[in-house]
Amino acid sequence: MGSQITGQTAIYGVIGDPITHSLSPMIHNYLAKSLQQDVIYVPFSLSPHQLRTGIEGAWVLGVQGLNVTIPHKETVINQLDHIDEFASQLGAVNTLKRTEKGYKGYNTDGDGLFQSLARHQVVLENKTIMIIGAGGAARAAAMMAAKKKAGRIYILNRTLQNAINLANHIQKFYDIDVQAYTLDQWDKIFNIDLCIQTTSIGMHPHIEVAPIEEPEFFSRIHTVLDVVYNPIQTKLLSLAEETGCQTINGLEMLVFQAVRAYELWHETRVPMNLQEKVLDHVSQYFKPKDDQKL
Questions:
Q1: Model's pTM, two decimal places?
Q2: Are 87 and 107 in contact (CB under 8 A)?
Q3: Is 73 assigned a catalytic role?
Q4: What is the 3-state secondary structure (H, E, C) of 197-257?
Q5: Of 40, 77, 89, 244, which residue is 20 to 30 A from 14 by alpha carbon distance?
Q6: Same domain membership, residue 244 and residue 178
């Protein structure tokens, strides 16, 4: 964000309902200021029945790009000129870029997740991946893992049919072994290279729960990533650490998927040292106030 807003300032934002909790303005405005780009990024509260007119209004007002969050990631597709291949496979978008005829939809969740894993030297090719959950985040994680040539994917979910549906969806696009189980069938699976937890279990304020808590479960896993970022250290990650697993919190995925959206909009590459600064900047938000003064 520049030192002041003028008639030349490009407008970007995020749409969702609710939206007041979003960290996207913090991330994108920090990037714009650091890169000295004349950009402002703001949150727009948009209910489902306002979606069509909201997108049309953004286009008329010259909004250059939008991020999309709950509950619009799937329904917004009908309002777009076109979407990229990976977003089409997912059936969900989280980033809109202005083009000559309308907005084009992208999904950067997979990119953000992959970069978070790469930051910790986690390799996916030929590896065994477990995904907990079967919703939108699970779909992005599973499709990304399949795209990166994982060896096998297990989908664990409370409702078996939803896990089966996700497994079938992945196999429409990728030739990969995908198996579906209920959460309590984890004991049938061994030697997991990476477990990705994609549900809201353990999210603030319900921080004292985890989808699976048995120590034996974690003894079968090398690395655990939890997409939940509030709190940064979920109970699942604490249990995993106690058993000796490598752990990765969800804040990295959040920041890196946002950075990827910024790169798409501005057709640039954000230097890695700046990405690390953004991650540190956003991390401060979750530290106790007394710690921030140190």
A1: 0.94
A2: yes
A3: yes
A4: ECCCCCCCCCCCCCCCCCHHHHCCEEEEEECCCCCCCCHHHHHHHHCCCEEECCHHHHHHH
A5: 89
A6: yes
pLDDT for res 289: 57
Which of 73, 97, 104, 127 is the catalytic position?
A: 73
Residue 183 is classified by DSSP as G
Average pLDDT, integer, range 239-261: 98
Residues 265, 179 share a domain:
no
Decide if 194 is inside a domain.
Answer: yes
Cα-trace Rg, the chain:
19
Cis peptide before 43 (omega within 30 of 0): no
Give yes or no for residue 14 having a pLDDT over 80: yes
Could you tell me what percent of the chain has a pLDDT over 90?
A: 94
Task: Let me know whether 158 and 245 are in one domain.
Answer: yes
Tokens of 114: 């992959």
Q: Which two tokens stand for residue 19?
A: 């939206």
> Residue 268 sits in a domain of what CATH number?
3.40.50.10860
Write out the residue range of the structural domain in which residue 86 sits: 10-107+253-288
Residues 212 and 262 in one domain: no
**Count of structural domains, the chain:** 2
Query: Which residue has tokens 């609710």?
Result: 18
Q: Do 131 and 43 lie in a common domain?
A: no
Whether residue 62 is predicted with pLDDT greater than 60 in this model: the reply is yes
Mark out the alpha helices in the chain (DSSP H runs).
24-34, 51-60, 85-90, 109-119, 136-147, 160-171, 215-218, 235-242, 251-266, 272-283, 289-292
